[in-house]
Write a structure and sequence with these properties.
The complex is a heterodimer of chains A (162) and B (191). Chain A is mainly α and 162 residues long. Helices cover 70% and strands 2% of the residues of chain A. In chain A, strands 1-2 form a two-stranded antiparallel sheet. In chain A, 11% of the residues are buried. Classes of the chains: A mainly alpha (162), B mainly alpha (191).
């Protein structure tokens, strides 16, 4: 076994991640290699020292000191809760939008109809008024009538479209 | 009551549930802060900040990971911020180490074995601080905090193979840094 591989196995062994067969091979190598034996001892001590600081105790009254800070921050928390509620509100809002769009599409709409259409709907000849205009003999009168006709407000009538 | 229930209750505003979670993790978070910051007051303050951040972020925690993993992630990020604000983590110069070893030698002559261990621990931790960031973090999580490999992988978002190789490299670097200074203390290789 080469020392480089032995070093890897020493660390695996110290982590408890070396299988039995590899451990035997490692032991065999350590028996004949003082340099790796030294490395194993150093790693063992180093890891033991590091692990000693594993569970340090914080300063006393940790929670008692933390609690008022949490309460102080609670002014901000309603906003966070609102964000949380807003997340739930998104699908509800989307469903409402879809519903509204459906209603808009499928509900019969009213639209402006022209005067001619209105007359036709009332079974009235839309040309009856214009006929008088064309029947006028004098061109001045015809022009005047055209001018006044164009000035007239076009009345609109609501009609149900399909 | 299991941890998930506590988290849900805390999310619904139960201070008692959050207190129970703090009770369970305060030592772990404090130890983690301590192993990076090496000052009890500053580490305690950092641990308080970590729990404060966790409390405010609770509504956004969807229990997709373990609470502990999520909390460690917050802790790591916060500690990194603290160290960044304090400037680059102090590199351990050879002068620092000589001074420490010298003090250790004097102490060895007069004080008890407990004190001797403290000095050696101090030396090891100062050397850990001198490692590059990515090695320092992984070594701290595994060898000081004792987190399992798979949890380290989740906390740091690294593949198990990367965790394995990076940790191996970190340990080699630490040993390389430690060995010459320990030799100077009188030839003993035992730490």
């Amino acid at each position: 076994m080469k020392c480089k591989k032995a070093e890897k196995w020493i660390l695996r062994s110290l982590d408890g991640r070396l299988d039995e067969r590899s451990r035997e091979d490692l032991e065999e190598h350590l028996g004949v290699c003082p340099s790796c034996r030294k490395a194993a001892a150093e790693y063992r001590s180093m890891l033991a020292l590091l692990r000693e600081g594993r569970e340090e105790t914080p300063l006393p009254r940790f929670w008692e000191r933390l609690e008022p800070r949490l309460k102080e921050e609670q002014k901000v928390v309603p906003l966070v809760l609102w964000e949380r509620l807003a997340l739930h509100a998104i699908p509800v809002f989307a469903a409402l939008v879809v519903l509204a769009a459906g209603l808009f599409i499928f509900t019969p709409q009213t639209r402006e109809v022209s005067q001619s259409e209105a007359l036709l709907m009332e079974n009235t000849n839309p040309f009856s008024e214009t006929r008088r205009l064309f029947e006028e003999k004098r061109p001045e009168d015809k022009s005047m009538m055209l001018i006044f006709a164009s000035l007239d407000d076009k009345p609109s009538v609501g009609r149900q479209s399909p | 009551m299991d941890e998930k229930q506590l988290v849900r209750l805390a999310q619904d505003g139960s201070q008692e549930a959050f207190e129970a979670l703090v009770g369970k993790y305060q030592s772990k978070v404090f130890s983690m802060a301590m192993s990076f910051i090496r000052n009890r007051e500053a580490a305690d303050d950092a641990a308080q900040e970590v729990f404060l951040k966790a409390y405010l972020a609770l509504p956004k925690f969807h229990l997709k990971s373990e609470f502990g993993t999520w909390l460690y992630r917050i802790a790591i990020n916060h500690i990194k911020d603290v160290l960044r604000k304090r400037g680059r983590a102090r590199e351990v110069s050879l002068d620092d180490v000589r001074e420490l070893s010298f003090v250790g030698e004097n102490v060895l002559e007069t004080a008890e074995a407990e004190r001797e261990t403290e000095v050696r621990k101090g030396l090891v931790h100062r050397m850990v601080q001198a490692l590059p960031g990515k090695y320092r973090i992984i070594l701290t999580l595994r060898d000081i905090q004792g987190l399992p490999y798979d949890e380290i992988s989740r906390v740091l978002h690294l593949s198990p193979g990367t965790v394995d190789s990076r940790l191996h490299r970190a340990r080699r670097m630490l040993r390389t840094k430690l060995t010459p200074h320990l030799r100077r203390e009188g030839g003993s290789h035992e730490m």
